[in-house]
Design brief:
The complex is a heterodimer of chains A (about 550) and B (about 200). Chain A is an alpha/beta fold and about 550 residues long. Chain A is built from twelve helices and 19 strands. The longest helix of chain A has 20 residues. Chain A is globular, with a radius of gyration of 23 Å. The two termini of chain A are about 25 Å apart. Chain B has a domain of about 120 residues. Chain B is built from eight helices and three strands, in the order H-H-H-H-H-H-H-H-E-E-E. In chain B, helix 4 crosses helix 7 and helix 5 crosses helix 7. The chains are: A alpha/beta (about 550), B mainly alpha (about 200).
């Protein structure tokens, strides 16, 4: 096959949504170029989930000084960016960004084939019309141009391919999916679940709905509970581009994946009123090149996709491609964390969990569901878990010697802890822009983020803490410690909204099909497209929107509309 | 067993037995961080002897090897050489010297030359003091960022015991023999009665 720079479709980004676009478009017969800014990932070489801790030089304490120098921000995601897995996160020094003074934003990201789908938390929840109707009902921002009925078949579709384990609960505000068998709750989680059912009439606890396989699914092995998915998974047991969507795309023979391809901008052709090509800087050689296609999907992750569009200026679009509304870059949202509680749980001294469960419990939203809160709109959910203390409790006990050692061999106190993920209202004043004078290593303008929590988030955060303590107390926990210190925007790693969908081209960037109002062959289906935030983890929704948009794009091509 | 056979086993979803060391070796480039051939770089021979005795008093041999066999002293040397900053290293070595000073005052000998009973007596005194200094421990909430900068700060006995525990329970001996943990458990259950392999090595 002759070398070509022209494809049917070009996708920017190989993360959770880019991988889906690659699968969908190639399976529908298109020749696809998938551009990835970062390096390839070779599981046999790069995955480190089975490396024993004694093989690590610092036994998990990490190269502290080096990390502080090269990844001071990525390190804030301490549970996923550790001595093993920091290689799946960007070098902050090479990938700088600015924030408005006094407004911290922790931009956590990867830059490799698979993107954040290698390190994500795998929590997968559906939205409901409580979420899709929220802006309209609250008169906040703009209305979603879709409803649950539009996306439900696509939730079915992506869940069926990805494999989501979970427990059906019949809650209207958290629609059930097509689940693989749920993982088991621990003794104290079951106690707390029962206590919530008995003592509250508005809330339940369920097992996390996780993109981790609890049985063999579509040729991928079931999880074997080594517990550290973010370090890699040679058995492909959790959903990622590497384990799931890219292999499917490769099977079609129609995928060309080009790593080390930093996208500079998209080229707008004013005659056709379409994107004609994408300018790429090779990350290694710094050579510039252009690729052409009929349609373009921008899936570089919420802030990077927005950045690309902002940097794609032309006489028609001086403020960024497809930005006639002026909303590009604005309405940036994230979930707020940092509120919750933990405590010691009684009983079950003779019992213990087995296996390292890569999942926790979930308490779905109960606020502003049946009754209206006086002090805040929207709601929140909790994640967390209950387990027994291990050897490290020895650090805080007195003693040494044989008796001390023998006591540490036994499991310690059962503890239960939960932390909330809270919805954030969309505000035009939360935004990112590009700085034309501050370039990254490849000569591309970097971003500056201006984003802060508002009163609604602060009021909600207080409720999250109080309710957490109440629920733990109801479950019989002792020595309850409550925390309420809001995380900075960005740290939940659910950043979204800066190129939102909407009904009206004057107040939104994308239409109901994730298609740019202004530029018909341009699609965007990662977090930037979101209109509101919900309180649930968003990746499943991103997957569904992507599959749906690909279906629309291809149907438009078949009708010669594109 | 060839690596591709292991990969095939894993792909078919077979429940795996405990991965023995030779099998794990297939999946990583083996290079020992400590063990045969490791040369101490910060601890001098006397300091090392003191560290070895101390770690083995804290985590002695029971029905499984203790901290001495697990080469915790070498892990401590790695941390002092490459991880600690100058102040932390100085503080640690001074703390170590302080133990000899106390031992001289009480028994007229360096710590390594004292009798086992004398060593335990001194250690117990340090443990009691550290306990009262530490006060009541309040469990921090779940998602706590590890306070890396706190590991080598504070009371010397707490620092030393902390690094000993970490070095022991992250060693192959500590992880596999003493705690009986598996890297690949193969299954997940929420609430099981304690027994062989479940909370008991």
């Amino acid at each position: 096959m002759a070398a070509t720079n022209t494809y049917d479709a070009i996708i920017v980004g190989s993360g959770i949504t880019g991988g889906w676009a690659a699968k969908e478009l190639t399976e529908k017969g298109m020749n696809v170029l998938l551009l990835e800014a970062g390096r390839t990932i070779i599981p046999e070489k790069d995955y480190v989930e089975h490396v024993p801790v004694w093989e690590l030089k610092y036994r998990g304490w990490d190269k502290r000084a080096e990390r502080a120098g090269t990844q001071p921000i990525q390190r804030e995601c301490y549970y996923a960016c550790d001595e093993y897995s920091n290689k799946f996160f960007v070098n902050d020094k090479e990938n700088p960004y600015a924030t408005e003074p006094g407004k911290k934003f922790s931009w956590i990201r990867g830059r490799q084939v698979g993107g954040k789908s290698l390190t994500w938390g795998r929590q997968s929840y559906r939205w409901s019309d409580l979420d899709f109707e929220a802006n309209l009902k609250d008169n906040v921002a703009v209305d979603w141009p879709i409803r649950y009925a539009d996306i439900a078949p696509w939730y079915d579709y992506v869940e069926e391919f990805a494999g989501i384990s979970g427990q059906a609960e019949g809650l209207p505000q958290l629609p059930d999916g097509k689940f693989l068998p749920p993982m088991e709750m621990t003794c104290v989680e079951l106690d707390m679940r029962d206590a919530l059912a008995k003592k509250f009439d508005d809330r339940i606890m369920t097992i996390g709905r996780s993109a981790v396989l609890t049985r063999v699914h579509k040729g991928r092995a079931a999880c074997h509970y080594c517990g550290v998915c973010h370090r890699g998974c040679i058995t492909g047991s959790y959903f990622s581009s590497i384990s799931s969507t890219l292999p499917a795309a490769y099977k079609t023979g129609k995928l060309t994946l080009r790593p080390y391809s930093v996208v500079h901008s998209l080229t707008f052709d004013p005659k056709t009123r379409k994107v004609s090509g994408v300018r790429v800087i090779d990350a290694q050689s710094r050579n510039a090149m252009e690729f052409k296609a009929r349609i373009f999907f921008v899936n570089a992750s919420a802030l990077e996709s927005t950045r690309i569009l902002l940097n794609s200026t032309s006489p028609e679009f001086p403020n960024g491609l497809a930005n006639s509304s002026g909303e590009l870059g604005h309405n940036l949202m994230d979930h707020h964390m940092g509120a919750g509680a933990s405590g010691a749980m009684p009983g079950h001294e003779d019992k213990m969990p087995f296996g390292n469960r890569p999942n926790g419990i979930y308490i779905p939203r109960f606020r502003n569901v049946k009754t209206k809160q006086k002090d805040f709109l929207r709601g929140y959910g909790y994640q967390g878990g209950g387990s027994r203390e291990g050897w490290s409790r020895g650090m805080h006990m007195s003693g040494f010697g044989a008796d001390f050692k023998n006591s540490l061999k036994k499991p310690g106190q059962w503890r239960m802890g939960i932390g909330g993920f809270g919805e954030c209202l969309a505000s035009h004043d939360n935004y990112l822009e590009v700085q034309k004078d501050k370039l990254d290593a490849w000569g591309i303008p970097t971003i500056k983020i201006n984003c802060a929590w508002g009163d609604n988030e602060r009021a909600m955060s207080r409720d999250i803490a109080v309710q957490a303590a109440e629920m733990l107390a109801a479950a019989g926990a002792r020595d309850i410690s409550v925390f309420q210190e809001m995380s900075p925007p960005g740290l939940a790693i659910h950043e979204m909204g800066a190129a939102r969908m909407g009904r009206d081209p004057k107040t939104s960037v994308l239409n109901e099909h994730n298609q740019a109002h202004d530029v018909k062959n341009l699609f965007l289906t990662d977090g930037a497209c979101m209109v509101s935030n919900s309180c649930v983890n968003p990746s499943l929704t991103y997957m569904a929107l992507t599959a749906r948009a690909c279906d629309f794009a291809v149907s438009q091509i078949k009708k010669n509309e594109l | 067993m060839q690596r591709r056979d292991i990969l095939k086993m894993l792909a078919t979803g077979a429940v795996l037995p405990v991965f023995s060391s030779p099998m794990v070796a297939f999946f990583r480039e083996a290079h020992a961080q400590t063990g045969a051939g490791y040369k101490l770089r910060t601890l001098n021979p006397h300091q090392n002897s003191t560290v070895v005795v101390l770690t083995d008093l804290i985590i002695p041999e029971t029905d499984t090897p203790g901290a001495k066999a697990a080469l915790v002293n070498e892990f401590i040397d790695v941390i002092l050489t490459e991880w600690a900053n100058d102040a932390e290293r100085q503080n640690f070595l001074q703390g170590l010297a302080g133990i000899d000073k106390q031992s001289q005052e009480l028994f007229g000998k360096d710590f390594v030359d004292a009798t086992p009973q004398q060593q335990v007596t001194l250690l117990r005194a340090m443990d009691d003091y550290a306990t009262t200094e530490r006060g009541e421990y309040h469990q921090k909430h779940g998602n706590t960022v590890p306070e890396l900068d706190a590991y080598l700060k504070g009371n010397f006995y707490d620092i030393f015991r902390g690094i000993t525990l970490h070095g022991y329970y992250t060693s192959e001996i500590g992880f596999t023999k003493e705690l009986g943990l598996q890297i690949i458990p193969g299954a997940q259950h929420g609430c099981q009665k304690l027994g062989a392999g479940i909370g008991e090595a």
